[in-house]
């Protein structure tokens, strides 16, 4: 679901068909900023990108004429809606039906049906031409501005970053929140309670990286991606004292942040939405309670935790 961040902007992940009529949807992080009058999208949450990282696309709200459900227009694209901007139609995929409804309502509420002035189009084009050069070790990223039906559309023409970064971004496409990790192994060997991508703070460098988390009966592990078989680290649940929404979030200025407190270390983890954050907190807490109860079988653990998650 979209959520309101600390700057009072509506944010969340969506899939967008960046190349019109291509049928290929890419996972992007969207920010609806009514104060700036724009809808922008990034490769990931800007909090997880290098400082000053540019968006990969943007659209002025005054050029949006209508936002609506596009299920009939794109029957093969689940939870699809369309943004009409001049002669261009942007097709996007939400995470579920409620997410679709929330985004459509938010965008329609934030936009006004107006005809852009010629001066606005010219000014927007000039602003894009004057984008600052990238300095230091950051790779140069090129953009193109197209005037389609009187609407300036800004898109990135090439991806920055190395092959490893691109591979990790590919793994982010579509939500993995309920996808079992070990697809090639016997199901009985792994009691998967919850799985999905979150962003974790490193122990030494204190940087933030997206990792694939897996909660099982007796442990919580994280991997470089959902394709990896060996975890970067496994946290035994018996060592976890508590899991809760992070009280230091005001200091770190991060949304949807929770902490897993263990005997030796506190793990700071950022979910993609408030709902996902609370879902992880309840899932881990429920698994800890079930594990510490007497005579709990693996099946009983799953039932208890799933009952807890049903109340979300």
Helix and strand arrangement:
Elements (H helix, E strand, L loop, with lengths): L2 E2 L5 E7 L9 E8 L4 E5 L14 E4 L3 E6 L10 E6 L2 E6 L3 H14 L7 H12 L13 E6 L2 E6 L6 H8 L21 E10 L6 E9 L2 E5 L9 E4 L3 E6 L3 H4 L4 E6 L3 E5 L3 H19 L5 H13 L2
Antiparallel strand pairs: 1-2, 2-3, 2-8, 3-4, 4-5, 5-10, 6-7, 7-8, 9-10, 11-12, 11-17, 12-13, 13-14, 15-16, 16-17
Helix pairs in contact: 5-6
Walk me through the structure:
It contains six helices and 17 strands. The chain has helices spanning 97-110, 118-129, 163-170, 249-252, 274-292, 298-310; strands at 3-4, 10-16, 26-33, 38-42, 57-60, 64-69, 80-85, 88-93, 143-148, 151-156, 192-201, 208-216, 219-223, 233-236, 240-245, 257-262, 266-270. The protein has two domains: 3-111, Roll (PH-domain like); 192-310, Roll (PH-domain like). The protein is elongated and about 60 Å long. Helix 5 (274-292) runs antiparallel to helix 6. The chain has 312 residues and is α+β, with helices and mostly antiparallel strands. The strands form two sheets. Strands 1, 2, 3, 4, 5, 6, 7, 8, 9 and 10 form a ten-stranded antiparallel beta sheet that branches. Strands 14-13-12-11-17-16-15 form a seven-stranded antiparallel beta sheet.
Please name the CATH architecture of the largest domain: Roll
Q: Quick one: CATH class of the largest domain?
A: Mainly Beta
| Unreliable residue runs | 113-121, 127-139, 159-188
Which value, in Å, is the CA radius of gyration? 21 Å
CATH superfamily descriptor of the largest domain: Pleckstrin-homology domain (PH domain)/Phosphotyrosine-binding domain (PTB)
Assign the CATH topology of the largest domain: PH-domain like
Distance between the termini: 13 Å
- Overall pLDDT level: 77
Protein structure class: alpha+beta
GO molecular function, one term: lipid binding
Subcellular location: Cell membrane; Cytoplasm; Nucleus
Function: Binds specifically to phosphatidylinositol 3,4-diphosphate (PtdIns3,4P2), but not to other phosphoinositides. May recruit other proteins to the plasma membrane.
Membrane topology: Peripheral membrane protein
């Amino acid at each position: 679901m979209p959520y309101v961040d600390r700057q009072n902007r509506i944010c969340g992940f969506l899939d967008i068909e960046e190349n019109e009529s291509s049928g290929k949807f890419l996972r992007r992080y969207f920010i609806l900023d009514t104060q700036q009058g724009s809808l922008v999208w990034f490769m990931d949450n800007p909090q997880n990108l290098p400082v000053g990282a540019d968006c990969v696309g943007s659209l002025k709200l005054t050029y949006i004429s209508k936002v609506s459900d596009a299920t009939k227009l794109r029957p093969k694209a689940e939870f699809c809606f369309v943004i009409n901007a001049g002669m261009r139609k942007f097709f996007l995929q939400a995470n579920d039906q409620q997410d679709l409804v929330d985004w459509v309502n938010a965008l329609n509420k934030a936009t006004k049906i107006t005809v852009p002035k010629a001066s606005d189009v010219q000014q927007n084009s000039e602003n894009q031409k004057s984008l600052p050069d990238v300095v230091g070790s950051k790779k140069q990223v090129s953009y193109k501005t197209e005037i389609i039906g009187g609407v300036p559309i800004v898109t990135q023409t090439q991806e920055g970053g190395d092959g490893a970064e691109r591979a990790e971004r590919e793994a982010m496409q579509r939500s993995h929140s309920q996808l079992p990790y070990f697809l090639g192994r016997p199901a009985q060997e792994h009691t998967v309670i919850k799985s999905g991508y979150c962003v974790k703070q490193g122990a030494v460098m204190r940087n933030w990286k997206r990792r694939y988390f897996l909660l099982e009966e007796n442990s919580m592990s994280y991997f470089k991606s959902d394709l990896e078989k060996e975890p970067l680290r496994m946290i035994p649940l018996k060592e976890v004292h508590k899991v809760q929404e992070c009280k230091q979030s005001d200091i770190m200025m991060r949304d949807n942040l929770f902490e897993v407190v263990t005997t030796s270390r506190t793990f700071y983890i950022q979910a993609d939405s408030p709902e996902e954050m609370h879902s992880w907190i309840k899932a881990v807490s429920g698994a800890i309670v079930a594990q510490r109860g007497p005579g709990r079988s693996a099946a009983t653990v799953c039932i208890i935790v799933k009952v807890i998650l049903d109340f979300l």
